[in-house]
Design brief:
The protein is α+β, with helices and mostly antiparallel strands. The chain folds into five domains: 60 residues, Helix hairpin bin (Helix Hairpins, Orthogonal Bundle), CATH 1.10.287.610; 229 residues, D-amino Acid Aminotransferase, Chain A, domain 1; 76 residues, Nucleic acid-binding proteins (OB fold (Dihydrolipoamide Acetyltransferase, E2P), Beta Barrel); 142 residues, 5' to 3' exonuclease, C-terminal subdomain (DNA polymerase, domain 1), CATH 1.10.150; 70 residues, BRCT domain (Rossmann fold). 36% of the residues lie in helices and 20% in strands. The chain has 24 helices and 22 strands. The strands form five sheets. Strands 12, 13, 14, 15, 16, 17 and 18 form a seven-stranded antiparallel beta sheet that branches. The radius of gyration is 29 Å and the shape is globular.
Length: 673
């Protein structure tokens, strides 16, 4: 295929992919299978690799490809994004209607009713159908440019799907996070000892304003479009007509929007969703009522801070008083211990609340929640139960203070809270509460790619794997007990498991999931310790002599290896034939790559990238995953990625695989492939 044909096909593929993303993420009505969709993406990726000059920022392949920003640039909104006046009662809405009709005269007025999403307001600028600028609301006149972050949202189209899109269109929307994704994010942050987000709105706002788009992409965000800003080349008579057009363009408009004939119908809408908001998977804190006619909106105009043609009806916060009957500790899948208040059941905003998470030990102390206390409870974001205050004046002296257990309540193993962290964790690698997540982490680290969540969960439910070592005792007969598992797939998985037995020691150390020990730390450790047995003898003082190993990491390693469960697990791995040691590197002589830093990109023909990186380290050099000004060489294989572009941008020397091997041979390195 020549370049002209490729350019035409690339354009077709981008439009097809955006269309099918819209069907899947916006309409929830896919027309093709995931496999067919993946084939389209793969074809586009291959063509863009062949013709990299045809890659554009709005290509579906570039949704997470932008480099981190140094700072957010200011963006002037083409039309202001003003705040709304608030209404708190039906009487306030009736007064709003009277003000509207006082200006317009006694004419029939239609209103559009919308949910008031609890997220971050943004503006999206499309030029000739392509997303060019995305910005936060800011002060209403000027926001911050977050285009690359918004491109990562799966439900946001990068190309307007309507035929003959206008030269310029500015859409307004709200970025949100669902309650389920908010809880999942906070669980992950708690497991890493990071501060928790207070609510889904803060989480959404914090995620969109990340300098690195890759972080935004990792957090599951959604967006709803609720209005039109500036628009050239098309005109609309009403807000409802504009919303219908935005939907045709592939933008996600809420299906809860309603056109009503009177303020009384608008009041009914507000009452309905005040009662039903708990059924929604995301937060809403009210409803927005807008005059539908654009002609009427223009006549009504603006005050200095808000439009006269719209108002926000705020739902009341639901709070109740109840008593803390107990505080129990639950162990999450990553080993984090979470205290949960068990409450005398109380109805809050239409549903019964009997539990409220207290997050961690520090949170319990900050709020001073004791067993037996009377507390004020509300639903954070209208759905997540939370204790907001303690009624200390009701205390009788019989209340009991909470203490975090020193032993895991599930398995009885030692617990550990590292300095500077808020989270207490179970140290037992075989704790039943966290075994599935540990097995998944182990499989990822040991390159057993086929054992994903669905298979591991099923293996655990069948009792076939109770710890990470059990995967090495699986047989074809055992595998075939699973649903949808045929002999071909089972043999393939068993082959991956068998191959993982001979992985380098540093991969095994990473796979064990020791707190604060990732790939980099595991690499540092295995330069000093060349057998798993040496770790059982290591002391905190000895570990801290390794550059890059601090006191908290050293403590975590020692605590992990002194658990009897760890020793039992290692023995199971030993009996299964897993590699637990490797040859000690020769320290004598000058290492030829000392002081040199290498980055590998693309596919190598002589060996795997991990093998090349290991070779560099054995020869005294450093192998890293990112290109910087201190990088000595970027070794470029077939189909290189963005690291190649970064190397050219920073003027870092690039060499191919043959040149890399020639360099090593000239240095006297023997035994090369």
């Amino acid at each position: 295929m020549d370049k002209k044909e490729a350019e035409k096909r690339i354009d077709e593929l981008r439009k097809l992919i955006e269309y099918h993303r819209w069907r899947y993420y916006v309409l929830d009505q896919p027309e093709i299978s995931d496999r067919e969709y993946d084939k389209l993406v793969l074809e586009l990726q291959k063509l863009e690799q062949e013709y990299p000059d045809l890659i554009t920022p709005n290509s579906p392949t570039q949704r997470v490809g932008a480099p981190p920003a140094k700072e957010f640039s200011p963006v002037q909104h083409l039309l202001p994004m003003l705040s709304l006046d608030n209404a708190f009662t039906p009487e306030d809405l009736l007064a709003f209607d009277r003000r509207v009709k006082r200006i317009l005269g006694e004419v029939p007025v239609e209103y559009v009713c919308e949910l008031k999403f609890d997220g971050l307001a943004v503006s999206l600028r499309y030029e000739n159908g392509l997303l060019t600028v995305g910005a936060t609301r800011g002060d209403g006149y000027e926001g911050e440019e977050i285009t690359n972050n918004l491109r990562t949202l799966k439900s946001l189209t990068l190309h307007l799907l309507c035929p003959d899109p206008p030269p310029l269109l500015e859409a307004r929307g709200e970025v949100i996070m669902t309650y389920a994704d908010f809880e999942r994010l906070n669980e992950e942050r708690a497991a890493r000892g990071e501060p928790l987000f207070a609510n889904p709105r803060n989480a959404a706002a914090g995620s969109v304003r990340q300098l690195d788009p890759k972080i935004t992409a990792e957090r599951k965000l959604d967006i709803f479009i609720y209005g039109l800003g500036a628009c050239e080349g098309r005109s609309f008579s009403s807000h409802w007509e504009a919303l219908e057009y935005l939907k045709k363009c592939g933008l996600k408009v809420s299906d809860k929007v309603r056109l009503v004939k009177s303020i009384e119908e608008a009041i009914e809408y507000c009452k309905e969703w005040q009662e039903k908001r708990g059924d929604l998977p995301f937060g809403v804190d009210g409803a927005v009522i807008k005059v539908n006619s654009f002609e009427y909106q223009e006549r009504l105009g603006f005050t200095t801070h808000s439009p006269r043609w719209a108002i926000a009806y705020k739902f009341p916060a639901a709070e109740e008083i109840t008593q803390v009957e107990d505080i129990k500790v639950y162990v999450g899948r990553t080993g984090a211990l979470t205290p949960v208040a068990h409450l005398t059941p109380v109805e809050v905003d239409g549903s019964t609340v009997s539990r409220a998470t207290l997050h961690n030990e520090d949170e319990v102390k900050r709020k001073d929640v004791r067993i037996g206390d009377w507390v004020v409870v509300h639903k954070a974001g209208a759905v997540i139960p939370e204790i907001i205050s303690v009624l200390k004046e009701r205390r009788t002296g019989k209340e009991r203070a909470f203490e975090m257990p020193r032993r895991c309540p599930v398995c009885g193993a030692e617990t550990l809270r590292l300095p500077g962290e808020a989270v207490t964790r179970c140290t037992n690698i075989s704790c039943p509460a966290q075994v599935v997540e540990r097995i998944l982490h182990f499989c990822r680290s040991m390159d057993v790619e086929g054992l994903g969540p669905a298979i591991v969960v099923q293996l655990h439910k069948l009792g076939l794997v109770k710890d990470v070592a059990d995967i090495y005792y699986l047989t074809l007969e055992k595998m075939l007990q699973m649903d949808r598992m045929g002999p071909t797939l089972a043999k393939k998985l068993l082959g991956q498991i068998e191959a993982s037995k001979n992985k380098p020691l540093k991969q095994l150390i990473t796979a064990l999931g020791i707190l604060q020990v990732g790939e980099h730390v595991a690499d540092l450790l295995t330069r000093k310790y060349h057998s798993i047995d040496e770790f059982f003898q290591a002391t905190e003082e000895e570990l801290q002599t390794i550059p890059g190993i601090g006191p908290s990491t050293a403590e975590s390693i020692v605590v992990f290896f002194r658990q009897p469960e760890t020793r039992a697990l290692i023995e199971k791995l030993r009996k299964a034939g897993v590699r637990l040691a490797e040859e000690k590197l020769k320290e004598e002589g000058v290492k030829p790559l000392a002081g040199k830093t290498f980055v590998f990109t693309g596919t190598l023909s002589r060996f795997k990238r991990e093998e090349a990186e290991e070779l560099v380290r054995k020869l005294g050099g450093e192998a890293t995953g990112s290109v910087s000004r201190r990088t000595s060489f970027v070794v470029v294989g077939e189909n290189p990625g963005s690291k190649f572009d970064k190397a050219r941008e920073l003027n870092v020397k690039t060499i191919n695989e043959e040149e890399f091997l020639k360099m090593l041979k000239e240095m006297g390195v023997e035994g090369l492939p």
